[in-house]
C-alpha cells in the first residue's frame, strides 16, 4: 500500500526548465513546493569528463532508458503500433534538468503569427487556405501579451543575441551575440547577397559572464563543440541546474526528490488531490497530496499522465471530440549541404547556438498566396562543432562504406557547410496521441501510442525550403550542393529532431483545447499542464524560448490561483 505524505502547496511532476521555473517562482512567494524527478540528480560536477562522444552522443547516456519506458508508434489508425526499442527519431531525456541540460541552447521566440495563426491566415488568404483535416487554432493569447514573459525568461538565461527583424522586442538581449567566425561571416554575406535579413542565433551559450536577476552566475562559452547531448562543465550553457533549481532550493520552501516516477494524478470531484509515485530505487509507492498539481514533464509524459489518470476527455479522431492527445506535431528538416574542394573551415570548433539565421521564409513573413502550404521555417547555418564519430560528410555517388568512403569522409570533414531549415508542423486530424491497448511500461502503466505521418502540407513545405536552401548554399560558394531528399512517410528512425509538441493544446475555450493561456486545465482548475505539450501547433523554431515564456506565465497563474481560486481567464 502507498504511504501518504504530508500535504504541500504545489507538487511538480518533472524537474527541467518548466518544473524549475514553477518551483522557483512559487517558492519565492512562500509556497511549499515538492519537485518529483524520475531520473537521478545532476550538477556541473558530473560533467568534468563529459567530452566522450561515444558515451553521450552515440549511446545517449543522458537519455531515457527505453527498455523501461518508451512509446509505441504507427503511421495510421489502421496499423498496429509497435514499441520504440531504441532511441530513434527523437531523444527522450531523463534526469534533473531534463532536456535543458543536453540542449544546444538555441532560444528563439515564436512569431506573432504563430499565436493567431488561424485568424491571421483566414484574414489574409481566406478559409480555403486551411486544407481539409488541418486543425489550425489560435492559442488564446497574443505575442504582445506573452512578450514580457519571453523577456523575463531571456534575462534569467542571459541569452546572447542580435535582434531578429521579424520579432519585436521590448528590450535588447541581456548579453551580446556570440563570436563571428569565417563560417558565420560567409553565411551573413550570402544572406545579404540574396536580399535576406540575417541575424545571429539567440544563444544560451553565453558570449560573456552574466549574473541573472536571481543572482545566479552563468559563465562565458569556451566554444568546445560539446553542447547537444552533453552537459556543460563550465556552467556556460544556461540550464535549470545552475539557475532556477538552485533559486528554488535557496528559499527553504522547496524539496527535490529524484528517482521518483509519478504514475498517476489523483483526483476527486473535478479537482486534483495529489500524485502517486514510485521510488525507482526501492520500489516503494508514495502519495503526495497537494493543493495544486503541475505537470512539468516532457511532451509525451504530460499527455500520458492525463490519459492514464482519466483526467480530461481523450481526443477521438473519428468524431473530433476531446482534446487530450490532440494536435500532436513534429517538425521537418529541410536543407542543403555544400561541398568545397579547396577551402577548409574550422568546423570541428563551435557551440550549440553559434550560427547565422534567416527568418525570411518563416511564419507568414513571405507571401503564401500561390503556395500550397502555410507557415515556413527558420534557416540556420550553424557551427556547433563536428565530432568525428557521427560526422561523415560525403558528396553524392560516394559508396557508403569502404576505402573511398573513408578517404572522402576525411577529405570533406572540414570542407562542407550547409543550411538547415526547421520547418513548422501543422496539426492534422489523424496525427494524435492515445494509450496503447497492448503494451505497458515497467510500472504496469500503458505506453503512450503515437499515430503520425507527414502530410502534403509537410511535403510541400519541405520541398520549398530545400530549394531555398540550395540557392543559399550555392551563394556561399559551394562546388557541389546536395539538396535534401523529398519527404516520404515518417519513420521512427533515424534521428530527426526532438522538437515534439502538442497533446494538451492551449486555446481560448474548452471546446478546442485542454488548457487556457495560463496552462490551467479547463476540466480541473487546480491542475496545470506546462510545456510544449500545450502548443497548438509547432512553429519553425526550437521550442524552448516559448516553453520558458509560457512557464513564467503559468507560475504567475498558479500564484494567483493559490490566493483567489477559480478559473484564471
Quick recap of the structure?
The protein has a single domain, classed as FAD/NAD(P)-binding domain, CATH 3.50.50. It is 22% helix and 21% strand.
Features:
single chain; 569 residues; alpha/beta; FAD/NAD(P)-binding domain; 9-stranded mixed β-sheet; 11 helices
Number of domains: 1
Global outline: globular
Rg measurement, Å: 23 Å
**Beta content:** 15-25%
Mean pLDDT: 96
The biggest beta sheet reads: 9 strands, mixed
Secondary-structure arrangement, i.e. CATH architecture: 3-Layer(bba) Sandwich
- Give the number of helices: 11
List low-confidence stretches: none
Distance between termini?
A: 39 Å
Q: Would you identify the CATH H-level superfamily? A: FAD/NAD(P)-binding domain
- Helical content (DSSP H or I, runs of 4+): 10-25%
CATH class: Alpha Beta
Count the E strands: 23
CATH topology: FAD/NAD(P)-binding domain
| Structural class by sheet pairing and helices | alpha/beta
Region (Disordered): 164-183
Keywords: FAD, Flavoprotein, Oxidoreductase
Protein name: Gluconate 2-dehydrogenase alpha chain
Domain Glucose-methanol-choline oxidoreductase N-terminal: 216-329
Amino acid at each position: 500500500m502507498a504511504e501518504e505524505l504530508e500535504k504541500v502547496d504545489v507538487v511538480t511532476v518533472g524537474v527541467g526548465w518548466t518544473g524549475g521555473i514553477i518551483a522557483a517562482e512559487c517558492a519565492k512567494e512562500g509556497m511549499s513546493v515538492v519537485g518529483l524527478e524520475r531520473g537521478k540528480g545532476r550538477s556541473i560536477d558530473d560533467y568534468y569528463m563529459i567530452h566522450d562522444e561515444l558515451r553521450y552522443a552515440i549511446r545517449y547516456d543522458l537519455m531515457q532508458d527505453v527498455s523501461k519506458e518508451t512509446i509505441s508508434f504507427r503511421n495510421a489508425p489502421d496499423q498496429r503500433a509497435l514499441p520504440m526499442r531504441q532511441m530513434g527519431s527523437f531523444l527522450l531525456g531523463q534526469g534533473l534538468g531534463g532536456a535543458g541540460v543536453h540542449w544546444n541552447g538555441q532560444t528563439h521566440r515564436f512569431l506573432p503569427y504563430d499565436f493567431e495563426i488561424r485568424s491571421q491566415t483566414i484574414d489574409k488568404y481566406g478559409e480555403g487556405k486551411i486544407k481539409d483535416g488541418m486543425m489550425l487554432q489560435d492559442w488564446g493569447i497574443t505575442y504582445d501579451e506573452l512578450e514580457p514573459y519571453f523577456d523575463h525568461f531571456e534575462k534569467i538565461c542571459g541569452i546572447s543575441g542580435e535582434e531578429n527583424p521579424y520579432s519585436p522586442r521590448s528590450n535588447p538581449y541581456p548579453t551580446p551575440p556570440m563570436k563571428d567566425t569565417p563560417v558565420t561571416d560567409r553565411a551573413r554575406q550570402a544572406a545579404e547577397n540574396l536580399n535576406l535579413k540575417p541575424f545571429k542565433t539567440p544563444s544560451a551559450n553565453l558570449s560573456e559572464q552574466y549574473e541573472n536577476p536571481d543572482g545566479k552566475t552563468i559563465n562565458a562559452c569556451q566554444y568546445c563543440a560539446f553542447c547537444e547531448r552533453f552537459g556543460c562543465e563550465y556552467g556556460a550553457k544556461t540550464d535549470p541546474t545552475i539557475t532556477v533549481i538552485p533559486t528554488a532550493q535557496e528559499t527553504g520552501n522547496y524539496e527535490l526528490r529524484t528517482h521518483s516516477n509519478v504514475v498517476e494524478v489523483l483526483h476527486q470531484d473535478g479537482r486534483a488531490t495529489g500524485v502517486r509515485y514510485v521510488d525507482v530505487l526501492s520500489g516503494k509507492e508514495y502519495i503526495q497530496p497537494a493543493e495544486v498539481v503541475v505537470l512539468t514533464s516532457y511532451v509525451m509524459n504530460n499527455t500520458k499522465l492525463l490519459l492514464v489518470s482519466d483526467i480530461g476527455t481523450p481526443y477521438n479522431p473519428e468524431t473530433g471530440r476531446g482534446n487530450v492527445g490532440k494536435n500532436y506535431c513534429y517538425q521537418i528538416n529541410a536543407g542543403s549541404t555544400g561541398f568545397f574542394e579547396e577551402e577548409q573551415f574550422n568546423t570541428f570548433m563551435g557551440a550549440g547556438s553559434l550560427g547565422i539565421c534567416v527568418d525570411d521564409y518563416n511564419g507568414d513573413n513571405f507571401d503564401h498566396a500561390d503556395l500550397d502550404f502555410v507557415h515556413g521555417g527558420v534557416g540556420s547555418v550553424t557551427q556547433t562543432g563536428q565530432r568525428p564519430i557521427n560526422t561523415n560528410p560525403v558528396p553524392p555517388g560516394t559508396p557508403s562504406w569502404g576505402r573511398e568512403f573513408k578517404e572522402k569522409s576525411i577529405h570533406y570533414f572540414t570542407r562542407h557547410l550547409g543550411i538547415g531549415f526547421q520547418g513548422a508542423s501543422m496539426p492534422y486530424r489523424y496525427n494524435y496521441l492515445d494509450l496503447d491497448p497492448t503494451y505497458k511500461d515497467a510500472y504496469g502503466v500503458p505506453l503512450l501510442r503515437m499515430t503520425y505521418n507527414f502530410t502534403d502540407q509537410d511535403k510541400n513545405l519541405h520541398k520549398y525550403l530545400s530549394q531555398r536552401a540550395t540557392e543559399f548554399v550555392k551563394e556561399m560558394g559551394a562546388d557541389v550542393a546536395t539538396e535534401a531528399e523529398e519527404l516520404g512517410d515518417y519513420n521512427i528512425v533515424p534521428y530527426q529532431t526532438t522538437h515534439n509538441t502538442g497533446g494538451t493544446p492551449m486555446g481560448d475555450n474548452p471546446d478546442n483545447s485542454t488548457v487556457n493561456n495560463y496552462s490551467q486545465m479547463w476540466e480541473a482548475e487546480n491542475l496545470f499542464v506546462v510545456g510544449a505539450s500545450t502548443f497548438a501547433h509547432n512553429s519553425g523554431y526550437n521550442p524552448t524560448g516559448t516553453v520558458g515564456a509560457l512557464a513564467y506565465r503559468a507560475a504567475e497563474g498558479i500564484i494567483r490561483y493559490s490566493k483567489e481560486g477559480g478559473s484564471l481567464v
